[in-house]
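Onboarding guide, step 5: your first structure request.
Type a short instruction followed by the sequence, for example:

Predict the 3D structure of this protein.
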Amino acid sequence: MRRAALAAAAALALAGCGGSAPDAAAPATVFAAASLTGLVGELMPEARVNLGGSDELATQLREGAAADLFLSASARHPEELHEEGVVDEPVPFATNRLVLIVPAGEAAIAGLDDVTRPGTRLVVGGEGVPVGDYTRRTLAALGREDLLDRVVSNEKDAKGVVGKVALGEADAGFAYATDARAAGGRVRAVELPAHEGVAIVYAGAVVSASARRDEARALLRLLTGPEGRAALERAGFGLP
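The system replies with structure tokens like these:
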């Protein structure tokens, strides 16, 4: 049913441009945050997907990269691109939360205080990367910016953080709860103390210059509709 709907949208897009646009029958190109890897693969198997840090993808779009739909781990990037006329108005579609992750067999780190021990190697997302910005804002809200003194590596996305911890190249890291869950037991998630003011909201937007706007809109409707919401919840995301 989903494939039929997307095929119909692609046909409409082709008819609307008189069938003369180059590669009009090709699948839509989706630029998606790395933390959406499994979800996009499940819901949009026909799409061409470019995965990466949301800030990096936003830069590529700003520089004219060909894409049809942008799915960001931060509402800020699509909002900025919308103000610049690069994408249509963003639509929030999911929420997430930050957790402290440690290697699966690591029992010595049970909370933030344990990260302060001498020799502890902490990995985080880089500044400007959504997971890195969320980490710094969360630590500021908790009054624990001292933990940043333990940082040995700044990664370009949450997948990089999880990879370093899973491989034992770091003792702890901050990542999305969904990435910790998707790691399949290679890392253990430690919940953070309750705090206010740091909302992790994912947003999607159709690229304004897209030649497949109808198909891109159909993909975004799929993500925000019943099937997409069910898949998001199965993956551990919250709903906006």
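Each response can be followed by summary notes, for example: Confidence is low (pLDDT under 50) at residues 1-22.
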